[in-house]
Specification:
Layout lengths: L1 H11 L1 H21 L12 E3 L4 E3 L2 E3 L1 E6 L7 H13 L4 E5 L2 H4 L14 H10 L3 E5 L31 H17 L9 E5 L10 H13 L6 E5 L19 E6 L30 E6 L10 H7 L2 H15 L3 E8 L31 H15 L7 E3 L3 E3 L4 E7 L6 E7 L8 E9 L2 E9 L4 E10 L2 E6 L2 E8 L2 E8 L4 E7 L5 E6 L2 E6 L2 E7 L3 E7 L6 E7 H4 L2 E6 L2 E7 L2 E8 L2 E8 L2 E6 L4 E4 L2 E3 L2 E2 L5 E5 L14 E4 L14 E3 L27 E9 L6 E7 L5 E6 L2 E7 L19 E5 L10 E9 L11 H4 L4 E7 L5 E5 L17 H4 L13 E2 L7 E12 L4 E2 L2 E5 L7 E7 L2 E6 L8 E4 L7 E12 L9 E5 L3 E4 L1
Parallel strand pairs: 4-5, 4-11, 5-6, 6-7, 7-8, 8-9, 9-10, 10-11, 21-27, 31-33
Antiparallel strand pairs: 1-2, 2-3, 12-14, 13-16, 14-15, 15-18, 16-17, 18-19, 19-22, 20-21, 22-25, 23-26, 24-25, 26-27, 28-29, 29-32, 30-31, 31-56, 32-36, 33-34, 35-36, 37-47, 37-48, 38-46, 39-44, 39-46, 40-43, 40-45, 41-42, 41-44, 48-54, 49-56, 50-53, 50-55, 51-52, 51-54
Helix pairs in contact: 3-5, 6-7, 9-10
The structure holds beta-D-galactopyranose.
The site of beta-D-galactopyranose has 10 residues, from loops.
Length: 957
Amino acid sequence: MVAKLKGRVPFRADPWKATMRRLFPVLLALLLTCVAVPGQARAAGEVTYDEHSLMVDGRRIVLQSAEFHYFRLPSQELWEDVLEKFKAAGFNAVSLYFSWAYHSPRPGVYDFTGVRDVDRLLRTAERAGLYVIARPGPYINAESTGGGFPAWLKTVPGRARSFEAGYREAYREWLHRINPIIARHQVTEGGPVILYNAENEYQVNTDAAYMQDIQDQARADGIEVPITTNDCCDAGSWSSTWATGPGAVQIPGVDDYPQSFECANPELWGPWGEGLTEKLRDDIPVFAAEYQAGAIDLGNAGYERCRELTGPAFMKFFYKNNLMRTGATMFSYYMGYGGTNWGWLAQPNDVYTSYDYGAAITEARQLTPKYDEFKRQGLFLQAVTPLAKTGAVPSPATSGNAALTTVARANPDTGTQFVLVRHEDRAATSTDETILDWAAPDGRHQVPVQVKGRDAHVLVAGYDLGGQRLAVSSSEIMTHAAIGGRDVAVLYGTAGSPGATVLRYASRPTVKVLEGRVRVTYDEGDLRLDYAHEGLARVLVTGGGRRPLLLLIGTDETAAEFWRAETAAGPVLVRGTELVRSATSYGDTVRLAADTKAGPVEVFTPADRLRIGQDEIRVTRTPSGSLLGATRAPGQAHLPALTGWRAHAESPEAAPGFDDSRWTAADHTTTVSPHKPKTLPVLYADDYGFHYGNVWYRGHFTATGSETRVDLNAITGLRGNYLVWLNGRYLGSAAGGVQADSGDQATPPNPDPGPGRFDIPDGLLKAGAGNVLSVLVATTGHNDDWIADDLRFKQPRGLVAASVGDTPITWRIQGTAGTDRLRGPLSTGGLYGERTGWHLPTYPDKSWNSATGTLPPGVTWQRTSFRLDLPKGQDVPVGLRFGGDPSPAYRVLIFLNGWNIGQYGADIGPQREFSLPAGLLNEHGTNTLALAITAEQPTTGPGPLGLFAYGNVRSGR
Ligand code: GAL
């Protein structure tokens, strides 16, 4: 964790930027002398681009994407739920990393079935109506084990993330498996994939031949869409104007995390800069390839704090500021939904089981206030199409209040203007008002604007809003739609703030204020409405030479109650319900696929009848012309108590007589790892094909009798540990090391990364006879390779040194027993119980004792089962909660129906609640929970466990 931070902060912070800028002319000159500058490829298939935006079949789009990791949600049926939630928030794209480690247990072996079925994933994205940014790496980072590299790659020669032989064959193997799947889902094939991202934040220790080869392989595999990459650090090597040589991509983008990862301090405000995405080249759109939308919880503050750190205020200010000051038209927010580091998916030094990320959609798929803000902004970006092509223009003055400032852009073809109003001092917390003196395309207007500290508004003028002409408004536009022969528009502003909207008419229209307090004036074609943003005002305008307009003017909060969905008969707007996924219309009926609780629902539609899922909703027609009805409360969900726990001790490997003759002999004397062992043989688990979770070692030696101490050293990754027995007697435990050498020059190598020294009790050794040392090492995942340095990535796992005086030891090693075909390579480790199926639901535990009393050092399993019968047609995400306080005396692996869904313990992280995703969880039948508890000291183990529901809605599909 620390090493990663050290490796990263300097690159993100401004001094690095400054240095890069100083060095830039020198680097440029150097590069120009070294490389030829070939012509820039422009269009690929039907996806093209220019300096303003991407285009699909010539149609400009603002790409509004968010990141989703299918490998962090091992339930195909829930992919659809999350992606539909993306779409409903106004996203038109999803960014998908593809994790090599998740698919490949061994060289040459790849699995794309079940929860790894990415073909299905891409079909699901397409069905949800999302474009896809495909990001197959080969390196992805993502706080995932090995940064997405399979652990077997640590035994392959050739520096990872370079063009060196060994690594080259390996990454090509992965690309040739994943690329063809992506290729058949491209926009050019009628599918959703719109961009292909090569590598990831590849900026340190780079190799242009490698970067180029990834792209050549992609093209050879049929990738036709534009290739992009995400630069970590502003002026990056694949993105600057001079980067047109080998390795350069068509549309480079930049990653930006202005709010840092310090969730413990959610009051922070842009400690890592202002978060403006750079324009990298004159011929491409500005692409915010990863823009912060949550945070990893480096300080164990809990993800709710991360959600605060990156909450609606941050989103309003930073996202709108970025949009308006850079003219960016391509955004991908990291993360839209975080998910779970189930199994051994985590890169252990940065994250624990939950990868909730403080995202807009929680790990248990619940919508948060951040989701509302995405929806307000996302629907705006989709509805107001002139945003896809803008340039900077002079901005209107903020008369009378120097605290506020404006930034303006205009679409050169339509003249539509966009004005950002924010505080001059971005850290200001005061509420300020001004009269904006706006020389808009349809005339000059003075409109009142109020801006709360750490808020910002994007206002629009000179806009053909459907059949209307919006001269200017000091409310923000959320969306508008032509419904039943009239325009319906949703505008909004901060509750209590003043607003004015001016519309143009050929003659005085008829204006009816249906609800709210709105002052109406008309002067030479300008219809002016003045109001305060309160609740939801409704204004119906008819005549005046235009089709009717229903203006709905709300607050941030009332705007968030709206949803928009498209049907064959045109769009519908819905106010109320928890979520509208989609709508269909047939005959006189509109049918919503919506999540509901008890409450009112109002639908703006020409239809007369309303269905939600299978329910016919009784409706009345409102004065606004909408349908109004009510939805029912979801049925109660009963969650049983978890009782009837049975227990069984394991760790037979600790006993001297245990038969390890079928284990792998650990007798290597060389290793590919740049870390050379201090004692031989090499005991690195990966070198013997054991890559994830717990690993057992048994060392046999004939004692001289003069040995007094066992000296061990293990590297496990953060939060790992190891337990030691000699001749069956428990000697104790030690914390596993994190890095021998992080490869990061700021951190000196650690020659003694995970020491454990154990005195041999008198009388325990058998002089002149066989003695057995048993060591259980809990490894916690593999280092990432962010700095493209094998010193960091090829860090061993397991024992890295072992001695008992000078006495020779012969070793055997045992880890995971084969790959679980259903659950993939990352689910299961090498505990005895895992090797013998104690975690599986089918395991017969009837002979086990009821679980009570003290657990001895070593591993004890506890199992129980429970029946669920959750109400059909409802979405009730279930979690498992550990009561009481955890103790450092133990750690727990949690298996649900055989799936390792996480790790709990005082040393593991702040997490007390674990998501049990539907799909792994049988919602209508029996489930088995199995806990593997590794005790370092005698302990009573974890406190009482219970089930709870994260939410409960009717899911009308
Ligand atoms: C980015 C990286 C992502 C992820 C993120 C932090 O720099 O590209 O993979 O690690 O940081 O969560």
